Predict the 3D structure of the following.
Amino acid sequence: MAGTGRDGVVTRREALIGAGAAGASLLMPGRSAWAQGAAKPAEIKVGIATYLSGPASVFGVPGRQTAEMLFDEINAAGGIAGVKVRPIFVDEGPGVDHVVGEYRRLVQSEGVHLIFAAISSADCIACAPLSDELKRPTLLWDCGTQRIFEDNRYSYAFRTQANATPEILAALLYLLKVKPDFKSIAVINQDYAWGRDSWDIFRTAMNTLKPGVKVAAELFPRFGATDFSTEITRVLALRPDVVLSTSWGGDLDALIRQASDRKLFERATFVMPLAESSLQRVGKALPAGHIVGARGDHWFLHPSPADPERLKRFSDTYKAKYNAWPIYPCFHMAQAVSAMKAGIEKAVAAKGGGWPTDAELASAFKGLEFPSPTASVRIREDGQGLENQLIGTTLHSDKYPFPVLTDMIVFPAESVTTPVGQKSADWLKTLTPDMVAKLPQAQAFKS
Amino acid sequence: MTRRSETLFALAGAVLILVLAYAVPWLRFVLTIALAKGLAVLGILLLLRAGQVSFGHALYLALAAYTVAFGAVLVPEALLLLPAAALLAGIVGLLIGLFVVRYREIFFGMLNLALSMVFYSVLEKFYALTHGADGIRLPPVTVLGRPLAGETGEWTVLGIALVLALACGALVRVALASPLGEALAGIKTRETRLDFMGVSPKRVLLAAYVASAVMAGFAGAIIALTTRHVTPALSYWTTSGELVFIAILGGAGSVLGPFLGAAAYELTRVYAAATFANAWQLVLGLVLLAVIVFAPGGIWGMITSRRRAA
């Protein structure tokens, strides 16, 4: 009697071991061949960590859509060095321990050749050391924190875009150029790491470049807040010249709509370094004359793209497929895909057509320069990508149902990125005001 | 189920975990996390015996995980960090327990929830120390002076988790069969009777509460040593909810329930996430619904009822 029950259970579990072991053994051989650099793999598998659930899916889903679109394009053109590519998506929604587990599964069970990780800075901080431990080339495709390559060095992790320092510094420099005489500022940021970090960068740089600006209020509404009436009332009463908000997603949409209803936009100039991703959702609720950034030189109407044809094809294909213009995570994904293609091709060429090992592929990314939809990005020796920054001012045009950008300044990557081996917090204190005078010319919106 | 067959079952489970971890390398990580969560749920089980549901045990999980993360800078020895983290969780559990055991049912659950959310906010707000939502990366840790890294590191943590799970499981099994366990059940059925018998229900519940905090502390320390990255999400209410979810999934009938539940939960989650990257929550939800509707006693209940039927 006792036997029957236990037998039933054991059988079920045995089935599980069987399935797991079979799955693993099926996938392992192809993988080890790649590791020895012996044979061409049947396909290049790419694990992609992105938000498919939760608030950050406003970035994660467009990122996934772009990956699907570009992987299809690569495959239609015959793959990379003759090998087709296949994305395997994992959800960042459940948090760091889930992503770390998924990273291991992607490497040890799926046998992916490359990993794109991740949107969340916490996930990137956790995955970068894993890339070295499991020796799998990893492209950090969207996360913002500057801590990763400033605090550590990795041989297998590379960032195919900029980081928080240039993204925020560019917005400040733009503000200093177009509104040099502002005297006070208020900040309304989400109450979590990014909101705090980005304000820290902005404040440090502002105190260096324009000391004496009064900080009227530092407001950190809860992450995911839907009601900003308290913050708006406070700012209306304090009347600062400038309001900074590095918020994004639903938080920023709600803030913009509520601030617009209460005419706050008429009293202060807003600086919103991430608002490019919200423009199409808030539409013309966001008035003209406010400063908007895009975490890089990401704008489907970029005034001076390196290859206008390339940008137009990218934007139009995305728009045709998903009925929206691409936003910055789409561009970040396009950069990761482009880096992957350029990296593999470089490694294959270096081997005279043979297939590179994981280590050879990883070293191909060091110093790699690859095209982005708008310009090109170079990966520095410390793994950090050098990406230009674009900041502009909103403008209402009849051609689009949402604000577009005008007076755009494209900041060359080197001028706003912390040099190799320095920490952002220290470097920002060495900036000099003549930086503002040396900025490139602003470029107007061309209809 | 008799004590002997339960012991056999536990040992068989331990062997099975080791076999699985050997056969499928990436499952080592998942199983270690499952064992850790099982440990925390074991504490929840003690409280469930008294009819109390805590929606805030993630507090002790996160407290221990952050203790390991901060402590590792000073003393990078896992075998010292682990008990230190559990001890701290136990001390905080005693302090908090002193007043939460005065409340019952929804008030008990909500108070725990509130306190864990306070801790969550502390982790988020003391940004300069904790790096907020980005979390802290653990510095390199050693076990008996040898670095805890790579494959041996994974096996070591899995081994520690397994030993702790077996030891705590056995202790809780003994405790539940002791007068203390009977008194806990008494709180659930009729508390006044305990008073009449001269047993203080508060003291009984406090003992269980502190024990559950210590076990959640062990769990948090193991999670920190496994993921090597701690974030405030560990103390968020959803983590506490997850522990209660696992307790229901596994069944409260036996000390094996939490571990069965945790393994089922983690495996369902990873397989669901691997198969349906954008609908895995749906799969997990359906599994829980199915368990509630068709097997109110959880997985353990399913096993025992089948035995009875046979």
